[in-house]
Design brief:
The chain is of the alpha/beta class and 568 residues long. The chain is built from 15 helices and 20 strands. The strands form five sheets. Strands 1, 2, 6, 7, 8, 9 and 20 form a seven-stranded mixed beta sheet that branches. It has a six-stranded antiparallel beta sheet with strand order 5-12-13-14-11-17. It has a three-stranded mixed beta sheet with strand order 3-4-18. The protein is globular and about 70 Å long.
């Protein structure tokens, strides 16, 4: 999911009317992308939430069966790594409990289930804002817009969390299926060189390419865009991207996408609400082939795995016997604690996403409930070198698809992987393209950048906060603009119309429990037997591709297969 605020750092050619460009205030330009996603300015006040959503989305208010008090295995988190872990453990005959703090959201061809400007979009914004560090306010006006938007909506258990840290803001899914419910479906495989730069031999690329990447693609059901769908006008931006990349001497190719193409066809034919073809911020019509259609129901069908939404793990302890003990809150969609539960397990897989896996483990180590965790827990966290940029191309502006269908590799300097992204967030270019009726391609990329942050426990508040270095994305910005200008030179316009959007609101965080340091090469957490990390937190700061979901899924498949085969 490529969502970021923007700030104008690019250069516009002399041929463009500078007065038109200057009319974009820094605040307006910076907020252009993020405000659109969060509905900034659309909600004037925060009414009382209770009683508001039961008739809008009654499915998430259904009672959830209580998990077993003791399970052979518990998996925390139902995103890519967690869903893989639950399925493979269950297939091995191990009774597995899958805990997810968020709701299990339905899909419907016509209903706008997630909303666009109310509490269904945010995971408890009031709590997030209350925990915001004083040092986390960044000097980019888009953050003021986001703060205002969050403060104006209901405090509800919505789709994803926005949390505020030092010099960065992190986003993560909060739903059964994790980030797969809201991302834009890109399933990109890294090349060998960037992969080896990141993993440094801990994970073998040849084995990944031969076994685990294909297994993950099959498990996710990811395929390239069908030719009839690609010809539709909503894919003009993808075709523009192909043309511009080819002219810039890159080698574009079709990137596998995690989409249910028959539903996309239904959108085109008017049989379903247009969401994917219009780049809706979240797609509830079933067009996105999330984990709720693949790994999760397959795990449940074994009869050995149960899924428990709205179960939030707060703390992890260990008994003298070696069994793990979890303090869990069973929540209502409004965040009310309906029950407090103590669950135990013989095997614990922490797969709550890089943010929440680090929160749980750093807190457990530094508060003393898992004191044997080593110093590498919480360290060396990276943002996947993420950035976005926009390039104007000739052609009429229109609604564009959310599908990142086309990509290429740039192998000069820092390795980067570029994809055409959804154009629902054009950031600083929005005012220009609206006035000029010009088409724009939006690209997201990954640079293999060494900058890292550290998660730290705050004893006074009991919270865990990421310390990210100020200006830490400088190398990523330079690499992004190098590629963007190379594309813009071939854009079809007589001017160099490029804007870089610094990605300081990160949804692709990786690391903090890295393979080879905090964990062994297969995700066994050092210091404890039968404790594993099998999600983005195990990936050393970058996946060498944008986005990282395919690599997370493939490495998770590799890890859990080895662990099961070795008996732990």
């Amino acid at each position: 999911m490529e969502m970021s605020p923007g700030q104008t750092l690019g250069v516009l050619g002399e041929s463009m009317d500078r007065r038109a460009f200057l009319k974009m205030s820094i605040a307006g330009a910076a907020a252009g992308g993020i405000a659109e996603i969060f509905g900034a300015g659309k909600v004037l006040a925060a009414p009382s939430a209770h009683g508001r959503y039961e008739s809008v989305v009654p499915e998430i208010f259904m009672p959830v069966p209580a998990p077993r008090q003791h399970s052979e295995a518990i998996v925390i988190g139902s995103g890519f790594g967690g869903s893989v872990s639950a399925l493979r453990l269950a297939e091995a005959g191990i009774q597995t409990t899958l805990l997810e703090r968020g709701s299990r959201w339905p899909t419907d061809p016509w209903r706008d289930i997630y909303g666009s400007s109310d509490g269904r979009m945010f995971w408890h914004p009031s709590k997030s804002l209350a925990e915001k560090s004083l040092t986390s306010t960044l000097a980019i006006p888009a953050y003021a817009e986001t703060l205002g938007s969050m403060a104006s909506v209901d405090d509800f258990g919505g789709l994803f969390e926005v949390s505020w840290h030092n010099n960065s803001v992190l986003m993560c899914g909060a739903a059964v299926g994790g980030g797969s419910v809201v991302y834009i479906g890109i399933t990109a495989q890294s090349l060998r060189v960037p992969f080896d730069q990141v993993f440094r031999g801990v994970v073998d690329y040849d084995e990944m390419a031969r076994i685990w990447y294909p297994k993950a693609l099959a498990g996710l059901g990811a395929t390239t865009v069908p030719s009839d769908v690609y010809r539709h006008s909503s894919f003009d931006n993808a075709r523009d991207f192909w043309r511009v990349a080819k002219n810039a001497k890159y080698s574009p190719y079709f990137v596998p996408g995690n989409w249910r193409w028959n539903v996309v066809r239904d959108e085109i034919a008017g049989r379903a609400k247009p969401m994917t073809i219009t780049s809706a911020g979240a797609r509830s019509n079933g067009s996105l082939n999330s984990l709720t259609f693949t790994y999760i129901p397959r795990a449940e069908s074994t009869g050995k795995a149960t899924v428990h939404p709205r179960h939030q793990v707060n703390d992890i302890h260990i008994e003298r016997s070696g069994r793990f003990v979890l303090d869990v809150d069973y929540l209502s969609p409004y965040g009310d604690v309906l029950a407090k539960r103590i669950l135990t397990t013989d095997r614990l897989v922490v797969a709550a996403g890089s943010l929440n896996t680090n929160r749980l483990l750093v807190k457990a180590r530094d508060s003393g409930t898992l004191p044997n965790l080593n110093e590498y827990i919480g360290a060396a966290w990276g943002n996947n070198g993420n950035a976005n940029f926009d390039v104007a191309v000739s052609g009429k502006k229109k609604d564009q698809s959310a599908v990142g269908a086309v990509g290429f590799f740039d192998t000069e300097g820092h390795y980067a992987r570029c994809v055409v992204n959804s154009t629902y967030s054009l950031g600083p270019m929005e005012s220009v393209v609206a006035a000029s009726n010009t088409s724009v391609i939006k690209a997201g990329l990954t640079s293999v950048d060494p900058t890292r942050g550290v998660f730290r426990y705050r004893r006074d508040s009991g919270t865990v906060v990421l310390d990210w270095p100020a200006g830490g994305n400088g190398g990523v910005a330079a690499n992004s603009m190098r590629i963007a200008h190379r594309l813009a030179d071939r854009s079809g316009l007589p001017v160099d119309a490029v804007v870089y959007e610094p990605d300081l609101m990160w949804a692709h965080g990786l690391g903090g429990a890295d393979l080879g340091t905090a964990c062994d090469a297969y995700g066994r957490v050092k210091g404890y037997k039968n404790l594993y990390v099998n999600d983005g937190a195990m990936i050393p700061g970058s996946a060498g591709a944008s986005n990282p979901t395919l690599t997370i899924t493939a490495v998770a498949e590799r890890n859990i297969a080895h662990i099961i085969s070795q008996g732990g």
